[in-house]
Each structure stands twice: as C-alpha cells, then as structure tokens.
Design a protein that fits this description.
107 residues; mainly alpha
Length: 107
C-alpha cells in the first residue's frame, strides 16, 4: 500500500466516523425524539452486553473438556441472573458472579 492509498483510506475512515458519530449529535441537538425511538434506543446497551456475555459463555467446543468445565460458567451466570432479579444492583451481581465462579472452580 502506498502512502497516497493510506491517506485515502484514513480520510474515508475519518469521514465515516464523523458521519456516524458526530453528525447525528449536531442534527438532533435540541430536538425531542419520539417515545418509540427512545424506547428502542434503550434496548441497545442491554443487547450489546448480552451479546458480549453470550459470546464468552457459549462456544462451539465448550464441552470438549468435559461437562463440568463447560457448566461452571453457566451455573455462575445463573447465580448472577438470580441476584440481578432480586437486587437490581450491578455491584451485587458482580460480587455474586465472581464469588460463585470462584467457588465452582474449587469444586
């Protein structure tokens, strides 16, 4: 790749980032979004977090090492779901997840 091609690619990346990230902020400044759009945008952070967690919990060859090494993270995740439903606290979810995974790793 030549330097000219590099600068063209860099400029295209910068323009794309500007168009996707900064331009909506300037266009929507001072405007109220409809309630349906606000509710739909509220689903983005939980969906992204669920995708990240599911990617770590579920893998194609997760049962290759045996049932228990694959089931331990799933059981710890189940504990976190129960704690989240009861407390609705991120701190208690994190503590419960770490503690349950540590106890399951000792077994």
């Amino acid at each position: 790749m030549t330097w000219a091609e590099f600068w063209v690619v860099l400029a295209c990346c910068a323009l794309t980032m500007l168009a996707c990230r900064a331009l909506p902020l300037f266009l929507l400044k001072g405007k109220q979004l409809p309630d349906a759009v606000s509710r739909a945008l509220g689903f983005i952070p939980p969906a992204a977090f669920a995708a990240l967690v599911a990617n770590d919990l579920l893998a194609p060859g997760m049962f290759d090492a045996g049932l228990w090494p694959a089931a331990a993270p799933l059981v710890a995740a189940l504990v976190v779901v129960v704690v989240a439903a009861k407390t609705k606290s991120l701190l208690w979810c994190a503590l419960a997840g770490v503690a349950s995974y540590a106890l399951l790793a000792l077994i």
